[in-house]
Design a protein that fits this description.
This protein has about 500 residues and is α+β, with helices and mostly antiparallel strands. It contains 18 helices and twelve strands. It folds into three domains: about 5-180, no CATH class; about 185-340, no CATH class; about 350-435, no CATH class. It has a four-stranded antiparallel beta sheet with strand order 2-9-10-8. The protein binds 2-acetamido-2-deoxy-beta-D-glucopyranose (NAG) (4 copies).
Length: about 500
């Protein structure tokens, strides 16, 4: 059951547009359009590959990736026998914005970009592809539900990009990531049908998604769409809490970038927070902080409201009322999950009424001292009890640079005493340190780390992409190569000036 669905079954189940061809148009009465990809121009080169995804998900032998066929299939130059390349029709809501019907998208199998938003060339470039490849794999190994990346192929094809939308057009090279997910259907997949009054098709797509991915919902249950909604609400709250737990912010949480399966998809201008800051924004053009890390839970709520609107035509009035009550519970689910996650990150066992206070004060101190999010938690979990009690952060063989920053806070001493006292609850003195390193990663894909790999990749040196891919596959384990590369060290000065843009 590794690949549960054949293309032919998918096409049989859901209608495909009668019109063929790659041009921007408004389509109706279909879920897909056939769309033959424009192949990337050669010479092509396999820049990176994920063994775990190739073997574990696609069930292929790694040697396959060394063949010309693989390069050609994945880059769109050749079609797999019996396959039909499809573009998926969906729309979407952006926070505080109006509905835009007929957005295009990158649709599955080869990650081929076919029908594209706003009539652009639909190409991805090396920069965004390296980021997506590395980040989706990293997220998977951090334990966050996500789409996967099986391979990264780069070409010599020139693609023009205005990276920061400031008129500085630069030639970059086209690239393609083979992305994998159990499903690419989004909230926007349902919205477009609901919005245009195609209710039979809406039902059909819902039944399909439920049948394929929500096996615990029975097809004849009269409450099935309500149960579906309730599941998506719960899972979305959990997903966004998991993002927060690793300091990840998704830069474009629109309804068209939100999976119905509550997995992370569409890695555009994402970012991992470095210094703790609830207003951290991964998208440089987002001046209003619409997608700041502290706002992600609310953006999730906004998107779920839109999902409810899209579902309304297939819900009875009573069910709509119930659905609104379910949606009201979203905030609580999120808060409860966040509380659990931060307790785990601090190694707190059992329950104590002051736990919330302990967590809040820590985050407050981190914000004031601009302590590094990832390393503060990591170092708290690594430091030995004795050194901890001695407040000896700088002189240990592993430099505790994040705690060193944090310890400058006036409340740190008091907080530490309370924390140490609380840590003893529920555990013996011998085991109380080691047990929580497996929830606090030592390595995340910081922007400066990705940038360094991208600069080399643009010069055809993929060694750092490979090294990072390897390191980020075990983010909880201290690794010599990673330490040598400084991936857990204080970020270099130049990292502060880095910007991340939306253009792909
Ligand atoms: C909500 O989602 C979480 C995470 O997937 C799961 O563990 C939990 O059982 C779900 N709760 C309900 C009520 O479905
Ligand atoms: C980045 O933020 C700006 C402002 O909020 C928004 O208009 C833009 O769509 C965002 N970028 C993407 C790719 O969503
Ligand atoms: C801090 O720890 C190191 C060993 O890791 C030790 O050599 C040093 O004396 C300690 N400093 C203080 C002030 O305790
Ligand atoms: C990576 C990706 O597909 N992102 C999409 C998210 O949504 C915006 C529009 O709201 C699209 O422009 C992006 O292409």
């Amino acid at each position: 059951p590794k690949v549960s669905l054949e293309y032919s079954e998918l096409i049989e189940a859901l209608p495909v547009d009668k019109v063929d061809g790659n041009f921007v148009r408004t389509v109706k009465n279909c879920i897909f359009s056939k769309s033959i990809p424009t192949p990337l121009k050669g010479p092509l080169r396999l820049a990176a590959v994920s063994k775990d995804a190739i073997e574990g998900i696609l069930d292929l032998d790694m040697s396959v990736t060394q063949s010309d066929d693989f390069l050609h299939y994945v880059s769109g130059a050749r079609l797999l026998p019996g396959s039909v390349p499809l573009a998926h029709r969906y729309g979407g809501h952006q926070v505080k914005m109006f509905f835009e019907g007929g957005l295009g998208g990158r649709w599955c199998d080869g990650g081929f970009t076919v029908v594209t938003p706003k009539g652009s060339d639909g190409r991805a470039v090396i920069r965004s592809s390296v980021r997506e490849f590395l980040c989706s794999e990293a997220m998977h190994f951090l334990g966050v539900p996500t789409s996967r990346a099986a391979s990264l192929i780069v070409s010599e094809e020139p693609v023009l990009r205005d990276q920061f939308y400031n008129g500085n057009v630069k030639t970059e090279r086209g690239a393609v990531v083979l992305r994998l997910a159990r499903s690419w259907f989004r909230i926007g997949s349902l919205e477009v049908l609901s919005q245009s009054g195609e209710i039979d098709l809406l039902r059909k797509l819902l039944n399909f998604v439920i049948g394929e991915h929500f096996p615990f919902i029975t097809p004849h249950d009269p409450e099935k769409y309500l149960v579906f909604f309730s599941t998506v609400v719960n899972e979305t709250a959990h997903l966004i809490a998991q993002w927060a737990s690793v300091g990840f912010a998704h830069g474009v949480c629109n309804t068209d970038n939100f999976s119905l399966l509550s997995i992370t998809i569409d890695y555009g201008p994402f970012g991992f927070m470095e210094s703790y800051n609830p207003n951290f924004v991964p998208n440089t053009s987002d001046d209003e902080g619409r997608y700041s890390i502290g706002a992600q839970a609310n953006v999730g709520l906004f998107n779920l409201e839109k999902l409810l609107v899209a579902l309304s035509p297939v819900l009875t009035e009573t069910q709509q009322k119930q659905a609104r009550i379910i949606l009201k519970g979203y905030g609580n689910i999120y808060q409860m999950r966040i509380h659990q996650i931060f307790k785990a990150k601090l190694g707190l066992l059992g329950d104590d009424e002051d736990d919330n206070y302990l967590i809040t004060v820590l985050l407050r101190m981190m914000e004031d001292t601009e302590s590094d999010f990832t390393m503060t938690f990591r170092e708290l979990s690594e430091i030995s009890a004795k050194r901890f009690l001695n407040r000896n952060f700088t002189q240990v063989e592993l430099e505790m640079w994040a705690l060193d920053d944090l310890s400058r806070h006036e409340r740190f001493s008091d907080w530490l005493s309370n924390y140490l006292l609380r840590l003893k609850t529920g555990r013996s003195s011998s085991d109380w340190i080691k047990c929580f390193t497996d929830v606090n990663p030592r390595y995340v894909l910081r922007n400066w780390i990705a940038e360094s790999a991208i600069r080399k990749a643009e010069k055809n040196d993929f060694s750092e992409v490979e090294l990072l891919h390897h390191i980020l596959s075990s983010p909880f384990v201290t690794q010599e190569t990673a330490e040598e590369a400084g991936y857990a060290a204080r970020p270099p000065q130049w990292a502060r000036r880095l910007k991340v843009s939306c253009s792909s």
